[in-house]
Structures are given as C-alpha cells and as structure tokens.
Design a protein that fits this description.
mainly alpha, 12 helices
C-alpha cells in the first residue's frame, strides 16, 4: 500500500518504492554512498594528520595543522564530487562536443548511419561483441576520453583539445559497420576488399573524405596510431603522437579492461551507462 504524504488533499505520494525506476534508485544510492565515504575519509585523515603533526610540531603550530587538514578535506570532497557526479554521456551529447565543421559533419555521419551503427557488433569476439556493440564501444571510449582528459589536463596541460580526442575516437573504427558480413556458418567474416588493416584504413579515409571531414596532421596521426605503433615501432623515433597515445589509452581501456561494458539490463555502476539496445 502506498504511504500517505500528509498533504491537504490526502492524495497518495507519487514517490513510492513502486514508482522509483532503477536509474533514480541507483542515483540515490550513489549519493548516500558518496556522503558515507566522504565522512569516513575526513575522519580517517583528520586523525592521521593531527596525530602526526602534534608529535612533530609545537602547540603553537596546531592551528596551521588544522588548516592543512581542512584543506585536505576540501580537496578530497571536491575530488569525490567530481567523480560521483560524472554522468555517462550519450553519443549525441559526445558528438555535439566536437567543435567546428568537423563536428557538424560527424553529427551528419551519425544521423545518416544510426540504424547500421546500432546493429553491428564492436568486434567478432574480443570486446562489445553483441548487436549494437559498435556504437556502445564508441560511446564508451568517448566517455572515457572525457573523464581522462579532465584528470590528466588538470595535472599538466595536454597539447591537444578534448574536441580533437573525441573526433579521433568517433572516427577510429568507422569502417567496422561495413567491414563484416554474416556467413553461412552463422559467424561474422570480413567483407571482400576489407580483409586487411590497409584495406580497412583506406575505406576509413574514404568515408572521412565523403563527409567532408578535414583532419590536421595531429588528427591524422591519431587515427593512424590509435591502435598502437605495431610494426612501425622505432627505437629512434616516436611514431605515435600525444593525441594518438591518449586515444589509444581510451581504446584499450574500453576493449581490454571494460570489454563487456556497458553492462546489460542497466546494471552498470557508471551512472547513466547502458547499452544502446537497452535504450531503444
């Protein structure tokens, strides 16, 4: 039975357990967990810092010690707020963060091929290997890029923009929706003419040109080495640029650490993360 709210018109409260969807239930749980962890962290470090400095410094310096503890607590609190409130962004939002004409072209590419992107797998076996896994992998990697960019750029300025990273990752596997076909054995096989890396990259470059996307040398390097330097490795020269290395980090994280994410049935702990087939 629904619990009464006590309002004047005696209507039943709409916010009963039966009407709270799983997404908002997880959001509320994350908020409570954030408060609990923050209090535990503050209590722990207040004790450690205070005991240490009391033994090393005079009582005259105790106020300084407390100020440092307060600063530490504030930094820890800000850090936790930043990550607890890091919502998983949709592919539409992520592509909208790509600046300039390339952003408009990327949005057009997404709109024109949305049905195909939501049908093909991310790979034949190794990561996001389910129908719609291709766009799930792209969305996952772009979300990872947003989170990593904020963290790394906060420590030292990165020599490229977030827009650069999002563009490269959006395009890095653009040939995959056309790369495979279902064989008579029920397995995915390479289409004729797309069986090698060179063939796939040539198709990717043609698709990029088809939509009028113009890449800088740095972005071209990013696309070329997003999967690593491989056979082009040299001990005398860095083939992979900074942008390529960053996008490679995002790609490996999605494909080898979180290869089965987003989790199905809306059970992912990253708030808002869900597979595209769940959303449609």
């Amino acid at each position: 039975m629904a619990r009464r709210c006590g309002v004047d018109d005696r209507r039943e409260c709409a916010c009963t357990e039966a009407t709270v969807d799983p997404y908002h239930r997880r959001l509320a749980f994350a908020g409570l967990l954030f408060i609990y962890l923050t209090l535990r962290l503050c209590r722990r470090h207040s004790t450690i810092f205070s005991d240490h400095f009391r033994s090393e410094r005079s009582q005259h310096d105790h106020d300084t010690v407390r100020s440092r503890c307060d600063l530490f607590h504030f930094s820890a609190l800000a850090h936790r707020v930043h990550y607890v409130m890091r919502f998983y962004l949709s592919i539409e939002k992520l592509v909208s963060m790509i600046a300039g004409p390339n952003g408009a072209a990327s949005r057009r590419m997404l709109d024109d091929n949305r049905a195909l992107f939501e049908t093909v797998q991310g790979s034949t076996n190794n990561h996001q290997a389910w129908p719609g896994g291709y766009i799930d992998h792209v969305t996952e990697g772009m979300n990872i890029a947003v989170s990593l960019y904020d963290t790394l750029n906060g420590l030292r300025n990165l020599p490229f923009t977030l827009s650069d990273a999002l563009l490269v990752f959006f395009l890095h596997d653009i040939e995959k929706p056309w790369k495979y076909e279902l064989g008579a054995d029920g397995q995915l096989h390479h289409r004729k003419g797309l069986g090698t890396k060179a063939d796939a990259h040539a198709f990717r470059d043609a698709k990029v040109a088809e939509y009028g996307i113009v890449l800088t040398d740095e972005q071209k390097n990013g696309l070329r080495y997003v999967e690593g330097e491989l056979d082009e490795y040299s001990s005398r020269r860095r083939m992979m640029g900074s942008l390529a290395a960053f996008c490679h980090l995002c790609d490996v994280t999605s494909a080898r650490i979180w290869f089965d994410h987003p989790l199905e049935n809306e059970t992912d702990t990253w708030i808002g993360a869900r597979r595209v087939r769940t959303r449609v």
